[in-house]
Amino acid sequence: MSEGRHAWIDASAGIAGDMLLGALLDAGASEQAVRAAIDAVAGDAVRVRTHEVRRAGLRALKVDIDLLDPDPPERHWHEIRDLLTEPTARAVFGRLAEAEARVHGITPDEVHFHEVGALDAIADVVGCCAALADLGITAVSASPVALGAGTVRAGHGRLPVPAPAVAELSRGWQVAAGGDGELATPTGMALLRTFAQVCEPLPAMRLESVGAGAGSRDPAGRANIVRVLVGAKTPGPGEALILLEANVDDLDPRLWPGVLSGLLDLGAADAWLTPILMKKGRPAHTLSVLCRADLAAAARDRIFRDTSTLGIRHSERGRVALDREFVEVSVGEGRVRVKVGSRDGVVVQVMPEFEDVAALAREQGRPERVVLHEALAAAYDAASRSPMI
What we know:
By secondary structure, the chain is of the alpha+beta class. The chain is 33% helix and 34% strand. It has eleven helices and 22 strands. Helix 2 packs across helix 5. The mean pLDDT is 88.
């Protein structure tokens, strides 16, 4: 996949699987690649058709999944899991299974899908995953989602909007009603939450393509479409990173150094603890992790694995950093690495690596403060003779 290609999903009018698939195809994804991926899972049971339509006067691409089996069976999660080999598609249905299980008070393997278990929904999920890969997308963000209002008829009877599974899948995301009727489906919401790392307004990017996918209805006064904007993200001064945060009040403090080291070894740009007071005056820590967007999912998994937190906040942050390199300086008979920070070719900061200082102090049997002072002097002397000054 090409590096740095970003997709922003505009779900301000709602989201459904077929609408997102239409938007991705309209943005330039290969219809042949999408059909091949769907055929590999569904075989001859479905047929994919696309055509242009108008929604509130706007052109959009409508995707129709025709079921060639007039009575497709209901499927349990474990049956769908066996059908899916692509990891992202499996992750989407895994989210759906977990949401339905929580709503109905059962285990995910007991979930049998009514609306989302049919072959057309499987085709939507597989097709969207194939389209995203074909476009070469490396990061996805999305707008707040319009969920709708009123009621909708489902397999268990009439349900309030947002439907319980949609509400469960929306936890942690910014949402609004946005209009009457069901505007977000479980499949659409599961796709968005699996694909998108951040809920944000349209980010700065060099825009390459725009796709619009249409829903089945054409209500008056509102364009029933999902849009996808694809381009190379152009951060402001500095780089765009993800900040993950979790409040923890019940972890053995002896475990924190290993937690922080593990996150840094994973590739996080920084990881730190902040002492806080929680409700009822309970002492705790906020764990903060700064990382690239492509590492955010792995960092979240590591936090859930290594700490006792039940939830993680995330937000996008900008960072301006000095250019950094390491050089070695002589301190007595030993060597110490020094981190050199520069901006526009001019050295701004020099700092000896304290682990090297401590190791040399132990080796020479001298105080750490003395060795640190000598290392700083040697570092500044080296910097003063640097061609970057």
